[in-house]
Amino acid sequence: MITSLKPDHQSKLHIHLLFWILYYILEAYLDFYWSRYQFPDFMWQTRLQNTLILELGYFLVKIPLAYSLLYVYEKVHLNKVIKYMICILIIILAVLGHRLFTHYIIYPYIYGVTETLDGKQPSGFINGLVAFNSFMDLIFMVGLVFGIEITRQKNLLKEQISQLKSEKLDQELTMLKAQINPHFLFNTLNNIYGMALKKADETPDVILQLSKIMRYNIYEAAEKMISIGKDLENIKDFIQIQKIRHHHLSVHLRENIDNPSQEISPLILIQFVENAFKHGVSESLGNSFITIDVELKNGILIYCIENSKEERPHQHSTKIGLKNIRRQLELLYPKHQLNVEDKTGQYIVQLKIDFNDTPNH
């Protein structure tokens, strides 16, 4: 049954069935048109009936020829010279079969006349001109079949390559996200550990906030895309955790979002905020600040973060977050613009993403 076939086999079957139907219609039309000159005394109904019958008869030669050659071309693994010889032999047998059917069946039994070259001189079974006509008719059909099949295989190969690229992309993104979550969790647990050592009253609140964030990371971030509104809520939760610990911290988050439902890849934006805390604020002395501006207008996102920075940052501070996020942006938003300025005492990151010019993932 067709339903038990693989998708590739179903596609091949459908394409080849359609080809043979269209080819039969074309050949029947051409032979019917030709028969009015060859047999002007026949009524058109008779000529049409004869044409439909003889084309079905020709299929008994053409279909085995086409698929025999395809089988040799695709499946037989022999020396090229031997394969060519086999193909030539198959074509010769097909021409003989074509001539046999034409000379001994079509003319005497379908048209009721003897095959002739010019309407007067009888044509022999093996005549150079008629044999050449049979050969050209068969070769034309074979060329069409091979063209259709080769085109189908090329399109199938393109689809498979595209699917493999997509799967590879998904695997790489999954791996990158898997790197992000432990990194974020490690940083936050370090903060909670420090608060627990000091027996800070805010510790339970921070743990509750962390639970909310991890729920987001486990369930929401598992999706390929999420609304920017939900992603910003997660950023706010993250900031709230940090503010509980850093009482001296000044954080300003300004939003101008015209479409909170706009989809974005999860955990993209928060990484810049995390880096601002980890590599700037948490290591700074005195007053520190973070300013976050998020603007989404007509599908264009402008995301800017400015944070204070210690003049002598920790030599062993990891840059896995920024390196990771750069790779994700390359994969998800290849036309994005990311500018990073490392100034004295200040760090500025600006990201621009045009969602109107973003490929689907």
Largest beta-sheet characterization = 5 strands, mixed
The largest sheet has its strands arranged as: 2-4-5-7-6
Number of strands: 7
Q: List the secondary-structure elements in sequence, H or E.
A: HHHHHEHEEHEEHEE
The radius of gyration is 37 Å
User: Would you identify the regions where 5 or more consecutive residues have pLDDT less than 50?
Assistant: 1-5
Q: Mean of the pLDDT scores?
A: 79
Secondary structure tally, helices: 8
Calculate the terminal CA-CA distance, rounded to whole Å: 35 Å
Q: What is the share of helical residues?
A: 55-70%
Silhouette: rod-shaped
Folded structure, characterized:
The protein is α+β, with helices and mostly antiparallel strands and 361 residues long. The chain is built from eight helices and seven strands, in the order H-H-H-H-H-E-H-E-E-H-E-E-H-E-E. The protein has helices spanning 7-38, 44-74, 80-111, 128-197, 203-220, 228-245, 269-279, 320-332; strands spanning 226-227, 249-257, 263-264, 288-297, 300-308, 337-343, 346-354. The strands form two sheets. A five-stranded mixed sheet has the order 2-4-5-7-6, with helices on one face. It has a two-stranded antiparallel sheet with strand order 1-3. Helix 5 (203-220) runs antiparallel to helix 6 (228-245) and helix 6 runs parallel beside helix 7. 21% of the residues are buried.
Task: Using brief descriptors, characterize the structure shown.
361 residues, disordered N terminus, five-stranded mixed sheet
How is the secondary structure organized here?
Elements: H1 7-38, H2 44-74, H3 80-111, H4 128-197, H5 203-220, E1 226-227, H6 228-245, E2 249-257, E3 263-264, H7 269-279, E4 288-297, E5 300-308, H8 320-332, E6 337-343, E7 346-354
Parallel strand pairs: 2-4
Antiparallel strand pairs: 1-3, 4-5, 5-7, 6-7
Helix pairs in contact: 1-2, 1-4, 2-3, 2-4, 3-4, 4-5, 4-8, 5-6, 6-7
